[in-house]
Amino acid sequence: MKYFGFLIVLLVTLVLAVGLSVNIGQVPPLGYLLDPYHGFWQNSYSEDEKAKDEINLDGLSAPVEVIYDENLIPHLFAQNDKDLMLAQGFVTAQHRLWQMEFQTRAAAGRISEIVGRQAIDFDRMQRRKGLGYGAEMGLQFLTDNSPETLELIEAYSKGVNLYIEQLNIAEMPVEYKILDYRPEKWSAYKTVLLLKYMADMLVGDKDIEYTNLRAELGESTMNKLFPDYTEDNDPVIEADHVWDFQPLEIKKPAGLEYPDFSILIEPIPSPEPGVGSNNWAVDGSKTRSGNPILANDPHLGLNLPSLWYVMQLSTPEYTVKGATLPGALGVISGFNENIAWGVTNATRDVRDWYAIEFKDKSRLEYRYNDQWIQSTLRLESIEVKGDSAFMDTVIYTHYGPVMYDRTFKSNDQKLNFALKWTAHEGSNEQKTFLLLNKAKSHRDYLAALDNFTSPAQNFVFAAKNGDIAMKVQGKFPLKWPEQGKYLMDGNNPSFEWSGYIPSNQNPSTLNPERGFVSSANQYSVGKDYPYYVFDNSFEHYRNRRINSLLQSKDNITLEDMKVMQFDDYDLHAAEVLPIMMRYLQEDSTKVFNEDAQMLIDSLSNWDFYADPDVTGPTIFSIWWSKLKAGIWSKLDQKGKSIVYPNNYITSRFIVDYPLDSVFDDPSTSAKLETAKEQIQSSFEATVEEWGRLSKEGKELSWSKYKHTNIQHLVPNFKAFSYDSVHTGGGRSIINATSERHGASWRMLVELGENVKAQGIYPGGQSGNPGSRFYANMIDKWAKGEYLNMNLNFRDEMESALFITVLNPN
């Protein structure tokens, strides 16, 4: 029965692979896949069924014991760091090899090699972002400045390659068999590239969209609809924090004006708005036990195999446990016997665009400071499966690579835009996590963070001695107000970054009087911080809900923190829906039909909790999307990319300025429309939409409508995905579970004499779809349940799933 089920999954996946864009000529013969000795049959197992008691590995100086618990979480016990990293690489590759390699291929722009021509545009985009170039700079930085880190990365790489070398076709991950290619060697470059890929996942900008809007609306209206700072702000670092440093001076050059552009090009993808991550820590004054408690739940794409892989890593000097990133060393979000830490995205603007003027079609020179200076040509050869290689010439300026030009996404010969990004620079993010894994104090935490450049992150911290802290860490450009908000003139040196904010002047706090620290992708600081802080995607609801709950709570326990991480309260709806309902029902003579009254009754009875089986959040979601489009669709510009004001700004206009001209659509009539008219007309459209969906037989409970699904990394492999997860939450809610994003890892740690920890993620430890450990945590995750994540020591693991000893060869 087990083999039959996996056969059905495999065949369905093959049909989808062929029908949904994988070239027919590139799908391997079914005979090959059905081969009982080498085909998919060999992937229908759980890891404990094929466990080996001992494995001999070159490069180890002493045995490493690997003890797996009942959830296939490995606990590695090594005698030194180098052996530990080699073993981590080997063990991770055993369970996640295909995922590691696929993600680095995506980062490098090498997907065409395995799926054919349909991926060429994606590969060109990845290479023009400069991720590969940034990884090269990172590797050179390690060679020159941190050979000890590079040595450990090379040990990890050796562990991965030792697994690949002993891997036979029968045991190869099934994705290689379906896509008909083979794994290649791992390298230190790939580990650095993977960390650059994470930077790419977490950074965004709206320079193109804002530039188009500015050209149409003017500076004054732009500042009204897209303010740099909002009044209703509860920043990461408490608003009354006192800054005890002398800031560097930075002023906007006199008379400097942005060039007027109007651009018909498609921007590169940015992170999805409304989702993000949460972390917080409370000190002993607010907990029942008197011990600090730390919580972290980074919200990322919901994929299988899961982004994270849980491990415990031990040497005689330290023991650390938590979420690792397959392909990178150590634990990324976790804890040891003395401290715990976690991360959220700091959403800072560290990626800017410059308009470049080339001297002629050769693009060998470009104008800077009214002089022609030399550019650099980088030839990118994109290998294409079943076809000849595609050659792309990417021009590099002193700013960075020219992403858009006459050969890529630009129809205008004169529009060339170069990308300047901190991820292009040499850095050593890997060292941050290696040091955090061993850290014992707040001083160690700060020393570790000094190595971290990109992506900008909010690092939460708690220690057994009672300290709690937060630091907003990254390499932040020193900018004058509004610098980088729009496309800049690459010829004018006044638009250059002026340097970087010193790391010790990045926002941070230690043991604030309120007894807690927290972040949820909101503004980093209050107005008193002396440097310009900007991003287009700061969060406005989760952070205020978190801080309100933490402010009101005492005698906090781990159970309280579980409830908070899974909190479904929709603060956005709570603030704006009562006003929408008031305007809707303001006319007492208005008679609603039966369908409309049913929706009104449902919303009137809704308590603003977006739980899975209620309809209130579904109605509100439909109504809000139609209301927002009705208000802002007049900003659309004939195919040019723009962005609407966010939910928070839209809500503030509805609540505080209902008669403002933003609600008027000049194309409808001479009458000045107000928030009331927009609300009433959008509700009518909502009733119509609800009726249409009901007639089509759609299930309209929130879970069914939201349709959270956890996709395989190859979207076409639907049979290896997990569809329609029954769970609540949503954008701008602490439980920020939307269609394709959510809590990729939930962790809770209480730092007492004996560390107590719990955690969960939406997937399983195995990357093999045929394993019982592939998706075994999803149901628990969807219900807000957790697994025990306490530190385990060798003599305490009596009920191990299995044990493997890695011996020196």
TrEMBL record:
Q: Which residues cross the membrane?
A: none
Q: Which family does it belong to?
A: Belongs to the peptidase S45 family.
Q: Taxonomically, which superkingdom? A: Bacteria
What name goes with this protein?
Penicillin acylase family protein
InterPro entries noted in UniProt: Ntn_hydrolases_N, Pen/GL7ACA/AHL_acylase, Penicillin_amidase_A-knob, Penicillin_amidase_dom1, Penicillin_amidase_N_B-knob, S45
Pfam families reported for this sequence: Penicil_amidase
Keywords (alphabetical) are:
Hydrolase, Zymogen
